[in-house]
């Protein structure tokens, strides 16, 4: 399915024609995102989305930010079992023990990475796996042309796992790459497609 025109008359990727999806698509999805905290948040939210609709996570994002100390890795890294129990009781977020524990473990891994390689270490690691910019002729004509994972997302997932991160498989990492602007999967005809 190619770009779809919403009720507002704007042609967008077919998944993003209305409401919160349209705002997310227009303002964030595919926009280059930098910074350890911003990328840690996005990676954490992509992990929570696994098995759910993105709209569920998107609507809960303010509660996630409050519950996880703004996704500041060093603060989340200090969370212990009482925090896990607090998060499991928080109806504002997705209450999944494995995912909550993975975010805390990932915060510890990111904090260790930053201790070792300095501020911006996660940003540098993630962006070092950005593929070359796509040529216009290679733009997806529809969502069926958009892969679930790529060689680059597989390599980045492996690199993230090597630093100790969890819940970072190639599909989750490709979703991160799309949302953080490492790849441009806006379909032909979408107003965001150059």
Helix-strand blueprint:
Blueprint: E1 4-5, E2 11-12, H1 19-27, H2 36-49, H3 54-67, H4 73-77, H5 81-88, H6 97-117, H7 121-127, H8 151-162, H9 170-179
Helix pairs in contact: 2-3, 2-6, 2-9, 8-9
Strand content: under 5%
Number of strands: 2
Number of individual domains: 1
Q: For this structure, what is the CATH homologous superfamily?
A: Hypothetical protein, domain 2
Rg, nearest Å:
17 Å
Distance between the termini: 18 Å
The outline comes out as globular
Please give the oligomerization state of what you see: single chain
List keywords for this structure.
mainly alpha, Endonuclease III, domain 1, 2% strand, 194 residues, 2 strands
Written account of the structure:
- The chain is an all-alpha fold and 194 residues long.
- The protein has helices at residues 19-27, 36-49, 54-67, 73-77, 81-88, 97-117, 121-127, 151-162, 170-179, and strands at 4-5, 11-12.
- The chain has a two-stranded antiparallel sheet with strand order 1-2.
- α2 (36-49) crosses α3, α2 (36-49) runs antiparallel to α6 and α8 packs across α9.
- It is globular.
